[in-house]
Here is the input.
Amino acid sequence: MKKVVWIVLGVLVGYVSFLAFYKDPAKKHLIIAEKYEIQKTSDSILKVEDSNAFNNIERTAPEVPGHDDIVFFDDRNAAFVTAMDGYIWKVDLKTNAAEKFVKAPLVPPGARRHPVQKNKMIFCASKLHGRQHPDSEKVGLYSLNVDTKVIEPVLQRVFSPEPIDSPANGSIGDSNHGIVYSDANAPKMTFDAMAGEKGMDMPFCNDLAISADGNRIYFTAPYSYAGASMSGGTFGEAITLARNGLLWKYDVPSRVLSLVARDFNFIDGILIEENGTTREESVLITETTKFKLDRLFVGGRRAGTHEVVWEHLPGMPDGLDRDSQGRIWIGFVKKRTPILTWAHAHPWIKNLFLNLPSFLLPVPKQTGILALSRDGSTPLYYSMHDGSRVQDIAVVVPHNGRIYLPSFNVHSQGLYSLPMPDSLKN
Here is the structure.
């Protein structure tokens, strides 16, 4: 009997050792970054924690499947929801009745109402991991006319940035800094040029923000290689911390695409900062799997630089939004776990994690929310939820005295919301 036990243990040790050193050719794009130390979450965040917030959660429109974003059109008494089933759903704000409104290309994640053309919303469309998509449907930016249900492509092609070899200039593997370009120095390409050999089909479009005049659309690509997909496709990036994240800007009048930032880690959420000037000078982004919030300067005297607003956050920050008071809201799609924190500090273990089936990975159910002051400097409200009522909060969307919690989970049903916390009411 002892001999059998030792044989079994030997086989297990051998198998684990194999997984720890085996390099899967299919995952050659997953480059493991060096050691990254994640510290304790700031006490200033923990001091504003409300452990009872999710006791007051409410569910409406139970027909709506898991979704990534909600766009409110109060003048039409409607909300439009970008859902994981590939449809944009419409919810009547008076009755909460929900219906499939229009089939989107691929699966729509982030979306915004157009600030000038009020009958339109702009949304991203990307592939969902594990789902078969028609070849005719392309990743990209799209516009939806909510009056006519007409969807039109805005941009489906990008260009491949030139490789950067020097770690000092921000190559993959240097996990401390990405690159931000000033507008004068940014790599650019026209729409027509991208239509030819110089361009390529857009691999990923995740979230977006639109300038106040409607002329510039910023959109994020957490990683940008062939086969990129949402949901389960993110596991490798979360483990490796490889710096494949890109931020793009599309100038609509001139039809010119610019690379705003590169070599950040998993750029996901995006929020333009209005500063009283005629043109925005900075944007906020989340580096989701590095638990960070960054400010990138896209104009003004600091153009081409960036600063860390928050790091060591208690969860993976996904989408960004503002309430009517200008406060910043962040959805934590997953809680930060000790094992992931430890793995980032000991990257030798990561190849083992990459070779494990996804169902064996220690994925937490906890999800949460965070509110910051207008400039992002001060935590105002924080709560983490055990996942029993809602999971995978992709963003927090404030509306009419409530905060809505889009759940990017295939098992989710309905719109979830909480009342605006008393401490943040007018």
Notes: Residues 24-424 form a domain with the Neuraminidase fold (CATH 2.120.10.30). The longest strand covers residues 256-264. The chain has one domain: 24-424. Helices lie at 2-21, 43-46, 191-194, 235-240, 338-345, 350-355.
